[in-house]
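Illustration 12: beta-N-acetylhexosaminidase.
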Amino acid sequence: MKTKILKMMLALTLSASIGFAQTSEPGNLSLNSIIPKPLSVSAHTGKFEFKPTTPIYYQPRAQAPISVFIAQLAGSTGIKAKTSLLTNQSQGILFMVSDTLNSLGEEGYCIRITPTAISVYAKTGAGIFNATQTIRQLLPVQIEGKTNGNSVWSIPCGEITDKPRYSWRGYMQDVSRTFYGVEVMKKYMDVMALYKLNVLHLHLTDDQGWRIEIKKYPLLTSTKTTLFDKSTNQPAERSGFYTQEQIRELVRYAAQRNITIIPEIDVPGHSWPTVLDYPELGVNQNRKPDYVFPFLDSWSHWGNQFTPNTLDPTNEKVYEFLDGVFTELADLFPSAYIHFGGDEVRHVLWEKEPHVQAFMKEKSLKNTNELQSYFVQRISTIIKGKGKKPIGWNDILSDAKNLTKETAIMSWLGDEAIADAAKNGFYAVATPTDPLYFDITQADRNDGTMSDLAYGNINSLEKVYNYEPETGLNKDEAKFILGVQANQWTAITQDLKDMNVQNFPRLLALAEIAWIPKGNRDLDGFRERLTNNLKRLDLLKIDYYKPGGYISGKWTAKEIGSEYQPLSWDVTKKTYANGRITAGFFYTSGANFMEIRKVELLQDGKAVAQDEHVGIADKFRGTNKVKTFLYHLQLNRYNPKAKYELRAEVKGIKGTESYGNFTYNLSPADRLNVVESK
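Figure caption equivalent — predicted structure in token form:
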């Protein structure tokens, strides 16, 4: 390394240690575009002009981390930046890595902007990558779309010194209840990387499907356990599984973006696909129906959401099976952790089986909690034997004294569960239902968004932003918090647009609280920065929640009669592509409910789609029966010049005093490239 670079590194080492001690006002170096908020920003006079001819220089260790940024520039602008190894250059964009920059940690960075250069310093490649995403956010939002490659962009001069609070900044995607393919997950990782989220937890198995190829057990990816049965009338893209080659592709893609993928195989409960394909592993002989189906159909089959069978914790074949599964997972995923689930196990099924009771007596296990601990210990040993660390949902803490300390806890039951894990000396990831389950509504239970309304809480943007994972912990206990994670369960949120609306902009709030110290949070400042980033999401073709959700109209008592009569709403602005349409009738007040018998989509006055069934706009918001007030239509021949109306035939039930919201949402067929106009 040249002497000049060494001097630059030395200066950075000194300034970085000071930079973390104080935060300057941003001045001209605007913070209102960067999420998560950097730790320290100071403004200088002048500006750096980013041109198509601007050269990029890098040290060898920085080459791979900057490759994604360079590709992003080329993809949006057509600019093929001139890149070469850094020697003694002092102008352009310079990327430098040094093991001496300990104050920056494993993911921190420093960016110095002068009129002639942007100099980036980090201890690791991860820090360099994070810096590139900050530079990306300093550029105009147009960089996220297709722009003129001849543009000149200005970045105000100054210095940013930054590093994260937590090493685990996660998002969990349930791909079992609804499957999402490789391209969807890549797009999600692109957005995660932009906001410095670094853990993608894939919930690969549940009662609704097994979603990963295991070569030793090929039946796991049979039709009956990966494809929703034809009787369920589910779109084809909601079923499927990842081949091992696709998993390797996703892992490579993630690594290039400083993201670790954590795989989850949920056992011993939530294992319906396994007991269908390998019935000898079940605790009983119940295997009806002999196929997988959407979560909402569970009540019609089983009377509740839980399966009538689990893996048998007394059966050695179960442990042999899981050893084989985890062997292949350990080879596919370089992550330190493998998640084994462990949640919501129906112990009553074990209590009913004489052979289980005999096993418990033989092993001196007093109750089924101790039997589950026995199972968890066996699974933890298997996972550790693969060179991995086990992690499970906090249900496994029910017998904490017998749980090996190497097992980490993912705490979903709130502050108490998180504190329970930390106080017992277990590393934990905070992911409480309230407020970090993003399948739960974020503003209004009557706004038509595809939220899980069985939960009474509202996980608002403000609630997410103000969440503090270390509540009630002292400094020693707080050291056991690995980080925070938002979860997206896809029982109800099935279409990609609906999922995006549930996740954004809350995922940006999660990114900020995972990155910055609590004392640096500023909700008003976050809202200001969010405004600019919503424009970014528009260009990235990501739908997000807007006030009012999917509400597109109202009905009042004046419009309701005692006999069926039509009500119509103009939905032209909400109809913008071919796709699936969900129209909803959410009763909000009044002495009477409303009955609906037919809904039609009119294109220039002519019906082009309809759903005819009797529905009731009532108070029901749970998941244990069909919401008849939702109507589903398919538009296949969209005409951008046409006028669209939604017409419904309705009447009052035992009276006409009924008020409510009419909701309308179109999920486009081209789900990756088309969004609703703002």
